[in-house]
């Protein structure tokens, strides 16, 4: 409740801010800086999509500069939706999503030998059907920075407000996109931030402020939403996945009274049971329980390699194994810290020391313990939401997501049904509300999804779908999935997309 109250206070200031921003936009010294990027080192030839990068100041003093990558839709940018995407982490650079996620490029997975890692096109980029702004936020993430030390101090409410300011100023400096349908998107930790931003946008619309956001809704993947629900759900997740015995599960439920967080001191039998569970699960890769647990490539101050020499000294303690997904982080790190790359991206010299994909030293206040109320408010205002989950994520397990969605008490329009692709089950879908719907979709296949569906247009990891009634994606080569949204009166989903954290 506190967060909501605080939020209203923050919101009131924006009216004043808006006036200041209008002045700013007409004075050339502080117009947001943006550049068109025609080619990128490591990618052969000119880029076959339109990429713009730039900085936008998001605070009153113009100290805090958010860096962004804007990829214009490769479909019909005039009509396609515009989406602002916030990468999770917390604090992971938006470039993660652009280059190893939903964006138009991928890294060629070639063993690093000191040369610049090379890029290729992602055939399943969401930018085939939507224009997407990928941001580095807060200051200290990716290429975003602050001119003052205090600008690095941040918290969830402030960050959401800064992202809202960013969006407002971005639209004012790109007026041709103001009328496009607007969506917000994110995953994992983005589940906390996006609803806060969405609420600011909704309030701005209600107050009749400029710009007139054509805001339609938001999409979230394995979103952290309610710390208690989400973090409590990993014990039942472990049980449902067959990782712990029934007897232990029954015992832990009773001894811990189904509250598994912070219970170690309370009751020794509860603590013993939790330890027994941890013993069974701690060696798993909790981001994807079927993938090997690899060395995490953090590249933070402490464990940093910067120069090429130390990078080649294998095995280094933070050097991921080649087979691992985290190997991408190493390629990204080496690419983004290359001087020619930074020149191509129009990075302002001297603004950051080392680009780190997911820094862990941002002075950020974790404030929200639950954003369920925000979902409720947004739903009652008629905004759409697509909540999708992968069933192998143990950090934000789908079980917690189902629990909080159920707590919204939104009537179910269509119950679980298989989601077919090429006649194979790719997942299940559950459509919740009326025509303005909150929709949740859960994959039900286990290993089948990875073997039979592994190299197609849908996910290779836990997330089997991210579909399209929220914003329509153009069909590519694959046949369409089942017409799951007809019952909810939503637009027809057109394609599965690949989504990799
Ligand atoms: C590294 O490998 C790439 C691709 O095989 C090659 O083009 C490049 O010359 C190599 N660089 C070095 C320094 O060996
Ligand atoms: C722990 O909780 C269980 C179930 O409520 C109870 O039977 C047991 O006596 C408690 N143990 C301790 C040490 O408090
Ligand atoms: C479940 O999540 C909590 C909080 O993040 C963590 O402390 C605990 O170790 C996790 N338990 C398992 C079995 O993964
Ligand atoms: C993977 O893609 C290749 C090339 O398109 C295709 O021949 C193969 O059948 C696909 N495998 C699966 C499991 O879909
Ligand atoms: C899906 O459902 C919609 C709404 O009922 C309908 O207009 C559309 O033709 C259907 N598409 C397919 C492929 O069945």
* Alpha-carbon distance between the two ends: 31 Å
Note poorly predicted spans.
1-30, 300-315, 433-501
CATH first level of the domain at 2-221? Alpha Beta
What percentage of the residues does DSSP assign to strands (E)?
15-25%
Q: How would you describe the overall organization of this protein?
A:
- Keywords: Carboxypeptidase, Hydrolase, Membrane, Protease, Transmembrane, Transmembrane helix.
- This is Serine carboxypeptidase-like 18.
- Among the domains are: 2-221, Rossmann fold (3-Layer(aba) Sandwich); 227-281, no CATH class.
- Strands 1, 2, 3, 4, 7, 8, 10, 11, 13, 14, 15 and 16 form a twelve-stranded mixed sheet that branches.
- 30% of the residues lie in helices and 16% in strands.
- The chain has 501 residues and is of the alpha/beta class.
- The model is unreliable at 1-30, 300-315 and 433-501 (pLDDT under 50).
- The longest helix has 25 residues, at 2-26.
- Residues 110, 113-115 line the site of one 2-acetamido-2-deoxy-beta-D-glucopyranose.
Key attributes of the depicted protein:
binds 2-acetamido-2-deoxy-beta-D-glucopyranose, 16 strands, twelve-stranded mixed beta sheet, serine-type carboxypeptidase activity, acyltransferase activity, transferring groups other than amino-acyl groups, two-stranded antiparallel ribbon, disordered N terminus, alpha/beta, Rossmann fold, 501 residues, 13 helices
């Amino acid at each position: 409740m506190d967060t909501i109250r605080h939020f209203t206070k923050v919101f009131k200031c924006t009216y004043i801010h808006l006036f200041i921003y209008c002045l700013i936009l007409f004075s050339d010294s502080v117009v947001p800086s943006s550049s068109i990027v025609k080619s990128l080192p490591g990618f052969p030839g000119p880029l076959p999509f339109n990429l713009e990068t730039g900085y936008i100041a998001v605070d009153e003093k113009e100290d805090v500069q958010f860096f962004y990558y804007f990829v214009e839709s490769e479909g019909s940018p005039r009509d396609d939706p515009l989406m602002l995407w916030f990468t999770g982490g917390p604090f992971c650079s938006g470039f993660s999503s652009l280059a190893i996620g939903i964006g138009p490029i991928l890294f060629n997975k070639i063993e690093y030998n000191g040369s610049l890692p090379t890029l290729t096109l992602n055939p399943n980029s969401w930018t085939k059907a939507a224009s997407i702004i990928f941001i580095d936020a807060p200051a200290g993430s990716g290429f975003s920075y602050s001119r003052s030390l205090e600008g690095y101090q941040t918290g969830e409410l402030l960050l959401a407000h800064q992202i809202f300011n960013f969006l407002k100023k971005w639209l004012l400096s790109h007026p041709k996109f103001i009328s496009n349908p607007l969506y917000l998107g994110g995953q994992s930790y983005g589940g906390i931030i996006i609803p806060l931003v969405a609420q600011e946008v909704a309030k701005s619309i209600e107050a009749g402020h400029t710009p007139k956001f054509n805001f339609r809704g938001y999409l979230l993947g394995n979103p952290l939403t309610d710390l208690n629900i989400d973090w409590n759900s990993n014990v039942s997740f472990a049980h449902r996945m067959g990782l712990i015995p029934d007897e232990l599960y029954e015992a832990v439920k009773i001894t811990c009274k189904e509250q598994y967080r912070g219970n170690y001191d309370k009751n020794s039998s509860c603590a013993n049971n939790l330890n027994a569970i941890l013993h069974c699960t701690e060696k798993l890769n909790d981001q994807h329980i079927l993938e090997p647990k690899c060395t995490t490539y953090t590249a933070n101050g402490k464990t940093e390699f910067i120069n090429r020499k130390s990078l080649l000294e294998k095995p280094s303690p933070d050097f991921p194994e080649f087979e691992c997904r985290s190997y991408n982080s190493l390629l990204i790190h080496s690419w983004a810290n290359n001087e020619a790359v930074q020149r191509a991206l129009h990075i302002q010299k001297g603004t950051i020391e080392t680009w780190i994909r997911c820094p862990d030293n941002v002075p950020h206040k974790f404030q929200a313990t639950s954003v369920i109320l925000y979902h409720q408010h947004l739903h009652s205002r008629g905004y759409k939401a697509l909540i999708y989950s992968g069933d192998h994520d143990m950090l934000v397990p789908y079980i917690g997501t189902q629990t909080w969605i159920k707590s919204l008490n939104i009537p179910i329009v269509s119950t679980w049904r298989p989601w077919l692709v090429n006649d194979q089950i790719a997942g299940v879908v559950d459509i919740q509300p009326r025509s303005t719907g909150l929709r949740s979709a859960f994959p039900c296949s286990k290993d089948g999804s990875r073997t039979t569906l592994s190299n197609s247009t849908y996910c290779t990891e836990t997330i089997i779908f991210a579909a399209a009634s929220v914003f329509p994606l153009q069909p590519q080569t694959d046949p369409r999935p089942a017409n799951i949204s007809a019952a909810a009166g939503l637009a027809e989903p057109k394609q599965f997309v690949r989504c990799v954290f």
